[in-house]
Structure formats: structure tokens, C-alpha cells
Amino acid sequence: MDQSRTPLFDALRAHAAARPIPFHIPGHKCGAGMDDVFRRFVGDDVLSIDLINIAPLDDVHQPHGCIQEALTLAAEAFGAAHTFFCVQGTSGAIQTMILAVCRPGDKIIVPRNVHKSVMSAIIFSGARPIFLSPVVDPTYGIAHGVTTSAVRTALALHPDAKAVLVINPTYFGVCAHLSDIVAIAHAHGVPVLVDEAHGAHIHFHEQLPCSAMEAGADMAACSIHKLGGSMTQSSMLHVRGDIVDPRRVQTILSMLTTTSTSYVLLASLDAARRQLALYGRDMAQKSLDLAAYARARIACIPHVHVLDPEIGSSEALHAFDPTKLTIHVRLLGKTGFDVETMLREQYGIEVEMSDMVNILCLITAGDTRAHIDALVDALTAIAAMPRGDIPPIEVKNPAIPTLAMTPRDAFYAPREPIPLARAAGRIIAEFIMVYPPGIPILLPGEVITQENIDYIAEQSRIGLPVQGLEDPTHEMVNVIVQQRPIGS
Ligand SMILES: Cc1ncc(COP(=O)(O)O)c(C=O)c1O
Predict the structure, then answer these.
(1) Ligand 1: which residue has its CA nearest to atom 14?
(2) Which CATH entry fits the domain spanning 407-480: 3.40.50.1370, 3.65.10.10, 3.90.105.10, 3.40.190.10?
(3) Cα distances (angstroms) measured from residue 219 to each of 242, 260, 261, 320, 341
(4) How do strand 107-111 and strand 128-132 relate by DSSP bridges?
(5) Of the residues 85, 86, 90, which should be mutated to test ligand 1's pocket, given the most ligand atoms within 8 Å of the CB?
(6) If you measure from the C-alpha of residue 207 to the centroid of ligand 1, how many angstroms do you get, rounded to a whole number?
(7) pLDDT in tens, 249-279
(8) Whole-structure pTM value
(9) In a mutational test of the pocket of ligand 1, which residue from 94, 113, 117, 174 has the highest number of ligand atoms less than 8 Å from its CB?
């Protein structure tokens, strides 16, 4: 196929150039009826293609024209049999994957360190999660992938599971042995769903980890907007193989998607696919080179380290995406959040996220050596500041809580607010997480422990963005009134 084409983007531009008189939404009518300051700021071009699913522009809910052509090109570029465009972010694509294969009561095998969208879908579908513990890095305090043997054991114990979900790669760039996991799951006739939110670029360079589609996975939710060059909120959902029915996927995706899909976002997916297909390898090479340069320079900063896992040292460390710089600042006697704040306030630098002991910086083809130098110079200056007598921060990882009820049962059970500080032993009825990364510390149905309460208090105390509880002060938590064991 001719990957230099952009059928949807071209159709939009042709439509805008023809200037038909629009008696349809959006009511701003290509910007003419819009706030002038905003209009002049964003520019007329983008407003001229802020259109809607009128006949010449096809419809993502039932594609047959220029959108279908764009989807077919995307499927070829990513090695999928079918690709869907998603304007609800990868959260929407993940929810579609799970709802496409799980009915109420079905089991799904998932790592515990999943993004909140996975758990939302588990609540929506009524599926029962079978959690796998991720391997945790004791130094960096971050969760990696799950091991092949953990998946094998889970499938032996739960052969009736309807899906296995894997994160490829994690936020921090670590990948499990996905093709082995796929082989094991397929031997049981179970589909593998991949959260590829942080891997839009990996398909395009042989030195990057294997993509979900290359590994033979059945579905992959891929944040093209994160690392693939499209606009924020636009993602793709790839499907291949015989286990998952693409028509069911389309139906579920349509159920979860606005009827007023943004054509600006859809067109940006079309254009990003072209760029990745034509130049993805060169762009990935540039990111790899810049990341190698950054790693070499950061290695010279005293007391600062960058995650560089020993690939192959454990089943969970099968492959690594080095364009993700997890910079460990614990030995500076500062939290990751402190360093994030100093970089913002004193050096004009914004990182992707921070946690207790790390900051995460993502390197892409949009970066330059000057960007890296600015980061390294700032970190060097921070490292040279007097440390005082603050002891190095301790890396803490609370144990995975016990799941006493299905998340859906807990979410809909009668609930009562009680002080979080006194909630140990109660079953939580809502989520609590730090976002980013959005991995629940507690999710509906889990038994709250004192260790969880202390951990949450500490995350809040150092300023990390604790979210999820209905009470914005985080003092009260909703717990279920009656505690029922699973299956009763
Ligand atoms: C691992 C993971 N999965 C899924 C998502 C959801 O992606 P989106 O923000 O595109 O909805 C995120 C977002 O941060 C993520 O980190």
C-alpha cells in the first residue's frame, strides 16, 4: 500500500477548500462564529477541518470511505489485521478490548500494576480480575512486567479465563517476554490484550522491544498521541488473529465513543501513521541516539542514576525501551517530586512524572541535544546543592492488598464514608491512586491495610498528586457497609 497517502486528512482539506455552506454542527462554522481571540490563536486551518460525520467525510462508527482507507493503511503500518481509531484516548481503547471479550463474571488475568482504565473496564464489564504480581525493582521502587511463568501458572489455575492482559512496555520502558506469553495463552485458546500506551513507536525500530502485533497478540491499545506523533486523546486499537471478532470490537468501541468524534484528532492519526510508516525508523533512531547521549551525560552526575535494567536477568526483564529515562534522585536526599518542582520553577523544564525517588523524562524525535543539555545541566546544578542532613529517602512498596470482593460488587455495594486514617481492615468502595502513573494503590473490593494508609499519607505529604477518592481532602474514604466474601 502507498503509505505516503493520508486519505482522511486529504478528504478534510479538499472539503475545506471547496467551502460548502455548512448548515450543520459544529456551530462555529469553520471558526466564523467562534471567540475571536481563540480563533486567531489556533488558526483558521485547524478550524476549517473541525468538521463532523457528513457523508463525504465518512463516519468512524461505520467506516466505508476515506476513514476506512485510513484504517486499512494504519493496520498495514502496525502489522494488524484491523485497526480502529479511538478519540477517547488509550483508556477508551483498553475499555473496548476488555468489554469485547469479558462478560459479567468472566475471569481476566491482569497484572496488579495496571492503569485505572483497565480497572474501570473490569467494573463496567463485571469481570473478575485474577491479579498477577509484577516484579518490583527494589532500587527504583517501580513495578516491571509480569513473568511468563506467572502467566503460565495463572492459566493452569484458571483455564476458564477469558483473556490475559499485558503491559508492553511499562511507563518506565520494561517489557516482559510477550511472544512467550502469547504462545502460552494461545495454547489455552485465550486471547492476549496488550496495553501499549507507551509503545506507539516500538514497532518501527528493530532495537526497540517487540510490539504487540509482532508478538502475535490479539489486540493492542496504542497511545499514538503519547509517542507516535498524533494529537492528545487520539489512539489506535489494533486487532489480529482468529480469537477476537473485529465486528464485536467495532460495536463496543462505538458504544463507548462520542457520536461527535473530532475530525482534527482523527486526521492527526492519519498523518501520524504516515509519518511513522515513512520515517518511524529514522525518528526512533534519533530518539535512541539522544537517549544514549543523555544516559552518558547523566552517568557523570554524582549521586544520580538512570534505570538501565540488565536485560535477560529475569523473566520480567526481557526487553527495554531506552528512550524512557527513569532518573533516580534518592541519593540527593530529595524526592522525585522535589526535583520535578525545582526543574519546573528554577529551570523551565517539565518532566513526564515523578514519584518518591525518581523522575521520568521521555525522549522523542521532537527533542534536541540542547534539550538534553538543559536537563543535564539543571540536574548537575541540583546535585551540587548542599544536601543538608536529610537522609536518603527510603524506597517503599506496599504489599498488594487482598481482593475480598469483585471490584464491580464493591463499587455498587452500599457504602459509607469513614476517616481514611481509621479504615484499616475495611473494604474500599472506590479507587485511590497517584496520577500519573494512574496505577491504583487501592481499588474497589480490596481490604485497606495500615501500610496502605501510611503510604497514601506519605505520597500526599510530599506533594504527589493523589487522586480517586470522592473526598478531595483525602480524609474520608468510602468503604462498603457489609463485607461479603467473593462468590457469596
Ligand atoms: C500504562 C497506561 N495505560 C493506559 C493509559 C491511558 O492512556 P490515555 O491517557 O491515552 O487514555 C496510560 C496513561 O497514562 C498509561 O500510563
Answers:
(1) 437
(2) 3.90.105.10
(3) 11, 25, 22, 21, 38
(4) parallel
(5) 90
(6) 23
(7) 999 999 999 999 999 999 999 999 999 999 9
(8) 0.95
(9) 117
